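Appendix B: complex inputs.
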Amino acid sequence: MNVCRIIGIGNELLIGDVVNTNATHIAKFLNKQGYFVDKIICIRDDYKAISDAILEAKKDHVNYLFTTGGLGPTYDDITMESIAKVLGLELEVNEEIVLKLKARAVARGHAFSEASKKMAILPKGCDIIPNGKGAAPGADIKYDGLRIFVMPGVPTEMKDMIKNYISHSLPNLGRYYQKKIIIEGIGESGLAQSIKEIASKYKDIYIKSHPRLRRGKYYIVLHIYVYDTLSEKAVEHVKEAAKIISTRFGQHIQS
Amino acid sequence: MNVCRIIGIGNELLIGDVVNTNATHIAKFLNKQGYFVDKIICIRDDYKAISDAILEAKKDHVNYLFTTGGLGPTYDDITMESIAKVLGLELEVNEEIVLKLKARAVARGHAFSEASKKMAILPKGCDIIPNGKGAAPGADIKYDGLRIFVMPGVPTEMKDMIKNYISHSLPNLGRYYQKKIIIEGIGESGLAQSIKEIASKYKDIYIKSHPRLRRGKYYIVLHIYVYDTLSEKAVEHVKEAAKIISTRFGQHIQS
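Resulting structure:
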């Protein structure tokens, strides 16, 4: 199965200091690979919040969990130890990572502190997700049907892990297709009846209109995409739905 | 009490098509008013997902819940009816809103459809949050100790409601203060010990470093802010912590 959930960890997200663009990047990647994201959560650097989120994912039979944030050297970066604790996994110092962190500190002219060493403490038996853009490694943890990809919160580091590790771990399921149609000069209400018809005809696709405003001009972005990635005809149904919209609203469609 | 939670509703958030900037805007507003945001959630336009989130907020003794999205005229906009259903509230057509929607459609040269009328169906007894920038009104629902502000997903409309309605409903608690210090030429690890000291000295404040990269240059953004808005000395403690950092790392601080 292909149910995914994304958890952003960090107080900065909850005080409105940082926009959670990480989740959007991960969700877009997963969606295009044919996976289903059921929920995105942002929580504080707090053991109870983290453990509750992990237990909730297990209870909800999530297959793949993606966390970002809380892997740095400071006292409040507690993601790795919190995940290990709630799952009952032993932590161990990875000496190979210690060496890498030391070399990195030397190269950058920083001292290697005990605080830095914290980044090398990982759950025993997990696979390491190399960090091509920063210090803290990620972890690929498999636990009782749940696979957790633990990543840093720095966007460039997370993106590097998606590109160079996770994209190889999660093959494209070939169950995804989307059409985006831009419609001008007609209100959302004017589209509603057609959308309703299409939605009741094809149960495995999703069609949704988003009103947008740019430079004083209103337009509608119509999304049609595979919703049920288990259906064999969903890709075809997206194409059929797009044809219906083109036929009915052709003169309003922006190419 | 002042525990808040933010729920973004809309498939577009879960497929990575839209970044949830709404949550960041609301969280920043709440934080500055002295309120505590414990969690941000994004879920699909799905009754079970919405009702689970509402019930979870009740279970967790959240005081203020903010939802965005799912108030439009299309078939999948089910936020208002889902909230009403899970709380057992009766829905009714608000004739005043119907008149406003009709006038709005006429002014824009659109037809007023049954689909549009859906936006005037609101929980009986709720207060209406006027929409100064769009069609769908919001709702201010008080239910058994939980207050829910239901808002549209279009950012300009949501922001209008925060500014013109919610900011008057949630007074500034005067329990908030923050310092943001930018530090260059020193690694996150070099700050870790001082941060740890400050954090153990002042339990009511929060201090966190964020490594950032701009134009090939690394720097640290250090946040110090009130964490426990119930403590009377927290504001003072933020100021004291900032003084400690200035004394120790003065030459690295960017003014």
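The domain at 3-169 of chain A is CATH 3.40.980.10 (Molybdenum Cofactor Biosythetic Enzyme; Chain A).
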